[in-house]
């Protein structure tokens, strides 16, 4: 079972990387359109739902997040910090953070890539490309989202739990920071609409321009449906009342409603404010 779990995590990581690579290539040059961005965001929904389902296999394992336990000699902080930092160090050496779609949770002192870098298209404006709100995403995930879909308890599988956490965090971070690409294409499509509020630093006007309630409602319904389809416990009963879920679909809809969509728009506004720098 341990080997199977590790294999699943590797596959999820590779899927995320391959989708990343495909998306980075797919939005280059003349193919960089709102439609290509929309397709990329829809693909990312699948990874988010599956990563939440995988994390739900483990109980809370609160010791993993306790900063007072000092489980790693010589390291000050919770065990999850240590595991994520070490994993990001390895991934940085493999070139993960050369990709403009990737944003590390612990960016300080990351080593440079040791492999030949992929030639990613530089579609983002330099002024906004470095936006990173992963501290906010980290806090939201650990303190607000996890208790909504993970059972209480401790099974001691801290390393595997942290690996699942990191896949969730990276999927959420990629989706939310994709707001930089959304903002860029919206600015290119209608610069005359965006330049006045950008120059005036009018964040409220920018937020109004970026908000489409009809689309947001559709996205929330779609991710809830995906969680319903992907996360059902399989049974032979035809009784709809007997449905059981690995992750409650309403939690996924709430995740997008309260955090993913608002934080994405926050990234979009921050990017646009810097777009004319």
Automatic annotation (TrEMBL):
One GO cellular component term: cytoplasm
Entry keyword annotation includes Cytoplasm: yes
Protein name: Chorismate mutase
Pathway annotation: Metabolic intermediate biosynthesis; prephenate biosynthesis; prephenate from chorismate: step 1/1
Keyword vocabulary terms for this entry: Amino-acid biosynthesis, Aromatic amino acid biosynthesis, Cytoplasm, Isomerase, Signal
Chorismate mutase domain boundaries: 158-268
Record-linked Pfam families: CM_2
Catalytic activity reported: chorismate = prephenate
């Amino acid at each position: 079972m341990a080997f199977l779990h590790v294999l699943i995590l590797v596959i999820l990581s590779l899927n995320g990387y391959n989708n990343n690579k495909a998306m980075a290539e797919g939005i280059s040059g003349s193919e960089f359109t709102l439609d290509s961005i929309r397709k990329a965001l829809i693909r990312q929904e699948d990874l988010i739902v599956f990563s939440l389902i995988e994390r739900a296999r483990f109980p809370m394992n609160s010791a993993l997040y306790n900063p007072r336990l000092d489980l790693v000699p010589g390291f000050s902080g919770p065990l999850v910090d240590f595991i994520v930092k070490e994993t990001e160090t390895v991934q940085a050496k493999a070139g993960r953070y050369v990709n403009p779609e990737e944003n590390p949770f612990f960016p300080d002192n990351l080593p440079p890539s040791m492999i030949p870098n992929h030639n990613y298209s530089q579609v983002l404006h330099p002024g906004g490309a470095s936006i990173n709100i992963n501290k906010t995403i980290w806090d939201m995930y650990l303190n607000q989202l996890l208790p909504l879909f993970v059972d209480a308890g401790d099974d001691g599988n801290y390393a595997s739990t942290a690996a699942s956490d990191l896949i969730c965090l990276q999927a959420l971070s990629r989706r939310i920071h994709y707001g930089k690409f959304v903002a860029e294409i919206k600015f290119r499509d209608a610069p005359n609409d965006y330049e006045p509020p950008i120059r005036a630093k009018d964040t409220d006007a920018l937020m109004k321009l970026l908000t489409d309630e009809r689309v947001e409602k559709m996205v929330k319904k779609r991710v809830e449906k995906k969680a319903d389809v992907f996360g059902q416990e399989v049974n032979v009963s035809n009784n709809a009342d007997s449905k059981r879920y690995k992750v409650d679909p309403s939690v996924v809809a709430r995740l997008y409603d309260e955090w993913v969509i608002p934080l994405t728009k926050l990234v979009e506004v921050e990017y646009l404010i810097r777009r004319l720098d």
